[in-house]
Amino acid sequence: MTRHTKPASNFTTSELLAVMASRLMTNGQIVFAGIGVPLLAATLAQRLFAPQLTILFEGGTIGPFIVPGELPPSTNEQRCTRRSNMVLPITDVLLLLQRGYVDIGFMGGAQIDRFGNLNSSFIGDAENPKIRLPGTGGGNDISSLTNMIVAMKHEKRRFVADVDFVTSPGWLKGGRSRANCGLPQGGLWRVVTDLAIMGFDEDTRQMKVLGLHHGVTREQVQENTGFTLEFDDKIETTAPPRDEELAVLRELDPKALYTA
Amino acid sequence: MSIEPLVKSYSALRHETLTRDRGLREKVMTLEDAAKLVHDGNHVAIGGCTVSRTPLAMIWALIRARKRDLVISRSITSTEGDLFFASGVSQHVITSWFTQGIVWGVSKVMRHHTENKLAKFEEWSHMSIGLRYRAGAMGIPFMPSRTMLGSDVGKRVGDEIKVMDCPFTGEKIVLLPALNPDVALIHVQRCDAYGNAQLDGLQFMDIDMAMAANKVILTTERIVSNDQIRRTPDRTRIPFFTVDAVVEAPFGCAPHECYGLYEPFFEHLDHYAKISSQDPVKGPQRYLDEFYYGPKSWPDYLAKLGMEALLDASRRGRSVHND
Q: What is the ipTM of this complex?
């Protein structure tokens, strides 16, 4: 494999994540989105090629359109309800996941392991943590009930063999362990990072690299991962963010609140 | 603190409700008098979510009244959770997510209290907390559900959830214990003197919480006539007979938001984030002294937030009606 030199980038890591993640959406999908990169990615897809994509927020909103420059600080402010079809109580919007109406759940993560389990609760031992993180929010519910996309920075300390604490279940211990635990539906589908796009082997449920971003090598991805990665037979190179995509993101977030 | 079972028996729940005065009566009072309805050791559920429709005027009154040992529950906990810990009013918060908000980073005050084992952050999934209130509202002891399985979130709450095989399908299912709070604090845009409450925008878990609780304290942006409520009964979300106190508290969520009226006071929240992360002990203490213990009254507190900040938050809040 030839080692490419990375071209001088005219975009930030968060912008790259949002663009790559947006390309994984399909028109007509119902997407449960978190704040930040997930919301930007879903909105970008909506603007460019998926006008019939519907965003749900765990605060209770069905089908909002975010006003450029007025990105909400969480999924629970009035900014989340602009031009939406409906507002529901929190419990009822989450129950849409359980009932099966949601195609994709989309969030960020602090720590992920080889089976796609996510940790947003504790760094270190839960009874004696080095850092107490904010916790699950709807993460555990979303990842228990639907197919997930996770967008995060590719760093060795974030990509670990086993997470310190399973806040949001991925494929648990691999194989059929997820279904055997009483989670027969959903599971981690794609992990999008600033280096690569990953999926999971259908049998072992181990993380597997499916695509590399332009100028990124296999070695580079492995070096930044705390466990041995598998690589798909047909690794693709993703096309770099287009001006059109970046322009939408910059219109949505002109102060770079989430894209700095 | 009394040792109570996790889930109340049905006869105990019905008895509590039976002994409440459910007549159509006026119950308008001051923040200070409403605070007397909350007793040390009570389980207090907090309406709203993150920085939205947080009943901060009532929380302000509870902190000033130096309540002790409250168990707090809320869907998602923001700055008010920091202040419950820092003021010593509570050492136990039941919630799904606990930090001021994503844009402000992880709360140093929450970290200080939990990592040093000064207080407990009991973590449940968001939907599970909602279903626990809903079971409480329905008068049933538990709710079956399909999350928290396989994860450490489920393992960590231990015996408080049960996993069973569904008697109909044989599938694995979680049983979540009902939550019937002693008191629910809920802020609304308008209600009448009896407590018929209308709330606009996102409802969060407030309706289930009101039905589940043994006592409801409403704070409201304004008290309207019963005639006005009766003109649009379809907009009433909380019936008067679940309500025990009505307090008129304009800007009762400031510096958080109240749908359609004011957005979060971002500069003030930035200021709080700054001083609380610089020093997770002295920072919130200084904040409490200045904004909670210092002011003579709620209007005096609002004056400290500043006219300019109030007007700016209102202008942004009302803009939701521009579309």
A: 0.96
